[in-house]
Write a structure and sequence with these properties.
Layout (H helix, E strand, L loop, with lengths): L9 E3 L14 E3 L1 H13 L5 E7 L2 E10 L2 E3 L4 E3 L1 H13 L4 H4 L2 E6 L8 H11 L4 E8 L4 E7 L5 E4 L2 E4 L9 H11 E3 L33 H11 L2
Parallel strand pairs: 2-4, 2-11, 5-12, 7-8
Antiparallel strand pairs: 1-11, 3-4, 3-7, 5-6, 8-9, 9-10
Helix pairs in contact: 1-5
């Protein structure tokens, strides 16, 4: 007697990915996190950005998207420095480590292309270049995604990763009212003054480090990413 195959619990999302790329672990989002990201993308006419929050046992499973106070245009997102510091403080007070709330940078594109812009690339390098690992996730209109993992090891490696919607984990119901309040509290934009020449910055200085003995990027790589780093290092 043969056992019935286990039902597939993840759905691969459309993404822009080079052909013949080596297999890498996917970035997964719970339906709650995915639904919230879609809602925030479509709530206004500009880009919007935030941080992906994951669980301690699986840092590549995004369970929530958190916004911070920001000024947005159709082509840029600029986080308020103090708001980023306050966000870090609040998350640490909840018992989370920076690897759970400060390594996955999420933002949207109002257009159909999820490919990172030059501003995106400069922001990712400047704000996450000292971290041992970080990930940039972009969601465009139409649902296309782009995700790239940066391993800040020697040698430094940048790896495009697939994005999946994971139904295998428990998740709360959608809460459009709460999401709308969060958007209205954190996102500011003025279409009359939005220009492509807006200051290309996410935030200009490092967040406060509280009472940590080491900088927030100095934590050891989790085992999954450490294994991938070893593969990259040895070709």
């Amino acid at each position: 007697m043969t056992c019935a195959p286990r039902p597939r619990l993840t759905v691969r999302l459309p993404t822009r990915r080079r052909k013949r790329s080596p297999p890498v672990p996917p970035l997964r989002l719970t339906p709650y996190a995915w639904g919230k990201l879609l809602f925030l993308r479509d709530r206004g006419p500009t880009e919007v950005g935030g941080f992906g929050v994951s669980g301690r046992e699986d840092l590549l499973l995004v369970e929530d998207i958190c916004l911070v106070r920001q000024q947005c245009s159709p082509v840029t997102v600029m986080f308020d420095d103090d708001a980023v510091a306050d966000y870090f403080d609040a998350q640490v007070d909840l018992g989370r480590t920076p690897a759970e709330f400060g390594r996955i940078w999420v933002h949207t594109h109002p257009g159909s292309s999820p490919v990172p812009s030059g501003t995106d690339e400069a922001t990712f390098e400047r704000c996450f270049g000292d971290a041992d690992w970080a990930l940039m996730l972009i969601l465009a209109c139409g649902g296309r995604t782009y995700a790239r993992l940066r391993l800040g090891i020697d040698p430094v490696a940048q790896i495009q990763v697939p994005v999946e919607l994971d139904f295998g984990e428990p998740f709360p119901a959608a809460d459009h009212e709460a999401w709308s309040r969060e958007f209205e509290q954190q996102v500011r934009f003025d279409l009359a003054t939005c220009t492509a020449g807006h200051e290309p910055a996410l935030w200009s200085r490092e967040p406060r480090l509280n009472d940590w003995d080491e900088p927030w990027w100095a934590e050891p790589l989790p085992s999954l990413l450490a294994g991938l780093a070893q593969e990259v290092a040895h070709g």
